[in-house]
Design brief:
This is M20/M25/M40 family metallo-hydrolase. It comes from Agromyces bracchium. Belongs to the peptidase M28 family. M28A subfamily. The chain is of the alpha/beta class and about 550 residues long. It has two domains: about 40-90 and about 270-435 and about 500-525, Zn peptidases (Aminopeptidase); about 105-260, Glucose Oxidase, domain 1, CATH 3.50.30. Helix content is about 30%, strand content about 20%. It has helices spanning about 10-15, 40-45, 45-60, 75-90, 185-195, 235-245, 295-315, 335-345, 345-350, 385-400, 415-420, 440-445, 480-485, 505-520, and strands at about 5-10, 90-105, 110-115, 120, 125-130, 135-145, 175-180, 200-205, 230, 250-255, 255-270, 275-285, 320-330, 355-360, 370, 405-410, 425-430, 450, 455, 495, 495-500, 545, 550. The strands form five sheets. A nine-stranded mixed beta sheet has the order 1-2-11-13-12-14-17-15-16, with helices on both faces. α3 (about 45-60) crosses α14 and α4 runs parallel beside α7 (about 295-315). The protein is globular and about 70 Å long. About 55% of the residues are buried. Residues about 1-15, about 15-35 and about 530-535 have low confidence and may be disordered.
């Protein structure tokens, strides 16, 4: 499992109550060959227990500059907390060191239209600073670069900014307006910088699925020190129309910090019993973005698997297959911790991993029950053989408790990516991020599709300071959160304060997580074809690098 700094073993907790925790192999276990009664573990893994861990993570962030981002003291304290309770519960814990290039926004970015008709755009809503953007405070005329408007019939019809020749005649000092399509955002931004642009605005391309505000990454190799932001197709199209009528002057401001070779860690915890040639893994990224505490993203997934591990120990469950829990670092920088872990595995150890379960955001305040599309029938990208069984286990579970669920794409946005690329069957759960909730989903899960005439996302505080146990106190729209809490009958309230976690959805997710982990801990015979990746799953077919788009 790569370079480590410490390793600890505690077997006492498991052994002390093992005799009282025989698992009844009589109830349903989805498609697993040996049905497993998971009711006791489901009952033990509660939303209250998970929320208690989130309190600890919030306190850690509050004591460390408001963040738990990888490479910060808040992240280190988060690992210390999780490791300490796992050690006490009898797990074998291992830290895995690695280094990464970190990106931090030091202040809130700004994007304004100075003329014509002043317009102040809202950060994180109308525009987002591209990850690894440089710093700058510039006011200059806007200049369009090889735009395709109206957009072409298919994605990546636009080649805007992809070639140096696109900037022939570009006026040095202007702010470049470029359109998504064809090439990586870093290529567009670098070509603009070489041409003398003082800043870059990249807007979405315009086809269905390519209209929202771009949350882009330039990659940690980008080194041009100019502000680069992403915006929506609607805003980009409006700016282009204004340019056609005359001069448009824009103001951009970003203040960023890029630090090279920052040390950070993954934390791995394994049961002291169970077959180590049939390892079942469950993972969640532990790091937040630099802007805040990351209580839903991804304190929720981290706390959910932690509580699952602790309750397994408390019940004295001795799995037939070793269960390995993982808390990943530097996910927000591009899935770096999980990729480092998989890359560092000797071939034999990789082959011993039967499957990987991923839990990234399982408490979204305006949630939906998303299950990763392991068989590919919804989105055309299936996981390695066996991923279909994991999908069906989760969807069957939700059906069994009378809840709806729906597939979500293996699009490369979370830590399952390294595993499916390596041919390891994978699956997991997700409750939604910046996407807008639909009216049909409101009918299925409750919540809001619209508020104040505007669409409402699954997590209105995604990647913001208000992703906390007190979102309104940390800048969220108070009226919106009051309405969300009312729509869910108070399910967002925790200890008298509206939080960014929906405990109704979290409770169902907790049950599903406990069910899946224990089912596969007892038998993986239904997950066949380990280490046989489908061609599409082994390719980088998506446009995402972690939470960010890279092209």
């Amino acid at each position: 499992m790569g370079e480590t700094v410490r390793r600890r073993t505690r077997n006492a907790t498991f052994a002390a109550v093992a005799a009282t925790a025989a698992i009844a192999l009589t109830a349903t276990g989805a498609q697993a060959a040996v049905p497993t009664n998971t009711t006791a573990l489901q009952d033990a893994v509660t939303s209250d227990g998970i929320m208690a861990h989130l309190e600890e993570l919030q306190a850690i962030a509050d004591a460390n500059g408001g963040t738990r981002a990888s490479g910060t003291p808040g992240y280190g304290a988060s690992i210390d907390y999780i490791e300490s309770v796992l050690d006490a519960a009898g797990y074998i814990t291992t830290r895995q060191d690695f280094r990464f290039n970190s990106f931090t926004e030091l202040s809130e970015p700004e994007m304004d239209r100075v003329s014509p008709d002043t317009e102040v755009y809202v950060p994180f809503v109308d525009f987002v600073t591209a990850e690894y953007s440089g710093s700058g405070d510039v006011t200059a005329p806007l200049e369009a670069v090889d735009l395709v408007l109206p957009p072409g019939p298919t994605a990546s019809s636009s080649n805007s900014g992809c070639e140096a020749a696109d900037f022939d005649g570009f006026t040095s000092g202007n702010i470049a307006l470029v359109q998504r399509g064809t090439c990586d955002f870093s290529v567009k931004a670098h070509n603009a910088a070489v041409a003398g642009a003082s800043g870059v605005i990249i807007f979405n391309e315009g086809q269905e699925g390519r209209q929202e505000t771009l949350n882009a990454t330039l990659g940690d190799a980008f080194s041009d020190d100019i502000p680069v932001v992403g915006t929506s197709f609607a805003i980009g199209d409006e700016l282009a129309s204004l340019l056609a009528a005359g001069e448009v002057v824009m103001h951009l401001k970003t203040e960023t910090l890029i630090e090279l070779d920052v040390p950070t860690q993954n934390l791995i915890a394994q049961t002291p019993t169970g077959r180590t040639d049939r390892v079942v893994m469950a993972g969640a990224h532990l790091d937040s973005v630099s802007a805040g505490a990351g209580i839903n993203d991804n304190g929720s997934g981290s706390a959910a698997i932690l509580e699952t591990a602790l309750q397994m120990a408390k019940l004295g469950i001795q799995p037939r297959n070793a269960v390995r829990f993982a808390w990943w670092g530097a996910e927000e920088a591009g899935l770096l911790g999980s990729q480092y872990y998989v890359d560092s595995l000797p071939k034999k150890e990789a082959n011993n991993i039967e499957l990987y379960l991923n839990f990234d955001m399982v408490g979204s305040p305006n949630y939906a029950n998303f299950v990763y599309d392991g068989d590919g029938d919804a989105f055309g990208i299936k996981g390695p053989s066996g991923s279909d069984d994991i999908e069906h286990l989760f969807s069957d579970f939700f059906e069994s408790i009378g809840e709806e669920s729906e597939p979500t794409e293996f699009d490369g946005r979370s830590d399952y990516d390294a595993f499916i690329t390596a041919g390891i069957p994978a699956g997991g759960l997700f409750t939604g991020a910046e996407g807008a909730k639909t009216a049909d989903q409101v009918a299925d899960y409750g919540g809001l599709a619209e508020f104040g005439g505007k669409p409402v996302s699954y997590d209105p505080c995604y990647h913001q300071a208000c992703d906390s146990l007190d979102p309104v106190g940390d800048g969220a729209d108070a009226a919106l959160y009051d309405a969300l809490n009312a729509a869910y009958g108070g399910a967002l309230e925790y200890q008298g304060t509206i939080s960014n976690v929906n405990q109704e959805g979290l409770g169902d997710m907790a049950d599903a997580i406990a069910h899946a982990v224990l089912t596969y801990a007892m038998s993986t015979s239904s997950v066949n074809g380990t280490a046989k990746a489908s061609p599409k799953a082994a390719e980088k077919v998506g446009d995402h690098l972690g939470a960010h788009l890279f092209r």
